[in-house]
Amino acid sequence: MCKNNTRKVETSRFRPYFVACIVSLMKMFFGVCIGWMSSASIALESNPPELGGDRPLSSDEINWLGSLSFIGCLIGILIWGPAAEKIGRKNTLRLLAIPVIMGWTLILVAKSVQIMYLGRFILGLSGVGAVVPIQLYMNEFSEDSYKGTLTSIMVLFFNGGIALSYFLGSIFSLKLFTLVCSMMPLIYLLAFYLFPESPVYLYRTNRKKEAELSLLWFRNNNYIKVQEELVKLEENLIYGLGHNEKTSLSNLYNGRARAWALIINLWLFLLLQFCGILIMLTYTSSIIKSSGSDLINPDNGAVIVGLIQLIVCCITTMILEKTSRKLLMMLSMAGMFISQALLGWYHLDDYSQIFPNWLPIVCICLHVACYCFGIGPLAFVISAEITHPKIQATAFSLFALWATAASFASLKIYPYLITYVGESGSFWFYASWCLISMVLAPKFLPETRGKTFEQITRLLEGDKVEDDDCKQELKVGCDVSIKRMNQKV
């Protein structure tokens, strides 16, 4: 009975998926920003450099170019989270395009490395901070059945941006590549005028008629489904569930479930940066070049890495809701540990002649692939699933700050690791994070796939949630929804 009735209120997913793709373009732009460094690190060391003046840049200056965007991210997080609450999700997402255009324009016309620093810093303003309004917007227009998939689309576009930057860097000069980057946000701005504001935000700001029209657009004019969701929005408003808690940070760890959710979130986003992926993506061409492998051109190697990254992300988007989160995480950590451990051995003088010269490119591809089907999307998906809805705006901003600080630290310490422990030691340093996480995941990471927030909360509190419990709660929720719908009709 439940199954037959729910079919009547199913809606087309084309519009939510299409909007998610357009909104995720902002993450693609940041992926391009990170991947740009792979081509730039070689082009800017040449004499004369293609951008930034008449003298080649030092390795320390190039490292600062890669790191400064993450300092901009720290500032951006403090701006875009509050802005999404003040002026709305849609207006905030529009404004995110301005720093992207300004940053690339400054880099393009720069006559000194200081102007390039400023451009990279401004680019960072729309980097990690964009995650907060993007996640809020997508969570508020999507349905529970495909929220995880929409979150993985955001990660897919980020990785797609990195792959795109590798491709453009291999066929264009650095100056033309940068010019193309400065024009990309124009497509984003034009497309965004087609979409309505978040229905949840409109309802919370007492614009209920606009909220209904917004829901009708996202649900493809399915009036019955919209009326059912409006009833739920009204209930959330009455009981305070539709508002974010604006109290002290203690609300993030108030109670066992929230405390565990906070610890897991902090670990996931720290691991996201220290698993070694930023080093692999930012210095892909340089790592291939320094390995001494003459099997493939460094820029072409970067393109291959980007294509593998994009293909694996597409596959992950399709299987994410059908596969155990915990299993994907463990396989991801194991693969990244193996790839970096092998890279470390390859760079030892005693072993460099033993291993084949194709090993570095294979290890980089393996590492990136394991990241894309595991920790890459799962950090964001699990975070959205275990974080209480009432504190998500505050929590997402905090996690973005934490992840950005970790990103800056991860990139900045890389040249120092090479200096003091060598290339082998630096790869083993990042591999150790993957090994520790692979051991801890089975015990401390909850399995969230297919569970409601209430069931996940019970898991975090130490209770067992059986499959029969899940089915029973799903049936009860379905029956309640049908009753509400029939009352409205």
TrEMBL record:
Q: Which GO terms describe its cellular component?
A: plasma membrane
User: What InterPro entries does this protein's entry cite?
Assistant: MFS_dom, MFS_sugar_transport-like, MFS_trans_sf, MFS_Trehalose_Transporter
Among the GO molecular function terms of this UniProt record, one is: transmembrane transporter activity
Domain (Major facilitator superfamily (MFS) profile): residue spans on this chain: 24-449
Record's Pfam families? Answer: Sugar_tr
Q: Which UniProt keywords apply?
A: Cell membrane, Membrane, Sugar transport, Transmembrane, Transmembrane helix, Transport
Instruction: List where in the cell it is found.
Output: Cell membrane
Which residue ranges traverse the bilayer?
17-42, 62-81, 93-111, 117-138, 150-168, 174-195, 259-281, 301-320, 327-346, 358-382, 394-415, 427-445
Report the membrane topology from the UniProt record. Answer: Multi-pass membrane protein
> Which PROSITE patterns does the record associate with it?
MFS
Its recorded name reads Major facilitator superfamily (MFS) profile domain-containing protein
